[in-house]
Structure formats: structure tokens, C-alpha cells
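Q: What changes when copper (II) ion is included in the input?
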Amino acid sequence: MLAKKQLLFGLSIALLSLPASAVKLQTQSQTKTVQGLTYKLTMPKPLKTGEQKLSLKITRGSFTVRNARISAEALMDDGMKSAVKITLKPTGEYELKTLLDMGGEWQLKIQQTAPNKSNLLFLLDVTGSSQHHH
Ligand SMILES: [Cu+2]
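A: The predicted holo structure follows.
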């Protein structure tokens, strides 16, 4: 009897957790490989205007690279620039937080100084108003 109650309790917990997974954000990702390192950039889909957090995972083969020294900025063709704050998360992924203040194509430029020097460019398709705020 007790076991049955626990089973029912377990089932209701499973059902309660369904809505949360249903509203889980969709993501999209882009992957580039430069000098033996693979960079996987994951972001919300669609990527909307406003403050956004992107996630960058750097790997060498099956190893996650956690000691990379990287800086980044987001740019538009019209000269708009947005600083990118980078934080290393416990998962070994880098969180890139930036304000994408306008819809359209943004360039995410990443400069790496360690473990090797390289420059990466990701194109971000930002959904939202293409009105200038500046
Ligand atoms: Cu702009």
C-alpha cells in the first residue's frame, strides 16, 4: 500500500515537471574549428534583441578547454558596438553576455590569446526592430 502511494507520488511529480520541459527554450548553435580547437556557440532560437546570454564551449577532441583566454565584442556594419562579458561556468562553458540592441546581422568577434592565438567570427541573426537607438 505504501509502495503504491509512493508510486503515485512519483507519477504526479513526473507529470508536474512536464510543463517546465515544454516551455524549455529552443536553442541554435554554430560550430567552428580553428587550429585544432572546436568552438560551439549556442544561443536562444530565435535570438532576439535585448540582453542575451550565449554559451561557448571549446573542445580539443573529447576534452573541454577551460583555460582559454578570450575576449569578445559584438559589432554591426553601421558601427554599433556592444561589449561582451565573459564568465567561465562550472560546466567548462563560457557564458557570453551582451546587449544586442537592434535587429539584423551582428558579428561576434572573439579574440583568443591562449592556449593559442586565434580570431573567430560568428554571424548572429538577431530578430527584432531594425530601428537605430543611437
Ligand atoms: Cu545598428
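Observations recorded in class: The chain has a mean pLDDT of 89.
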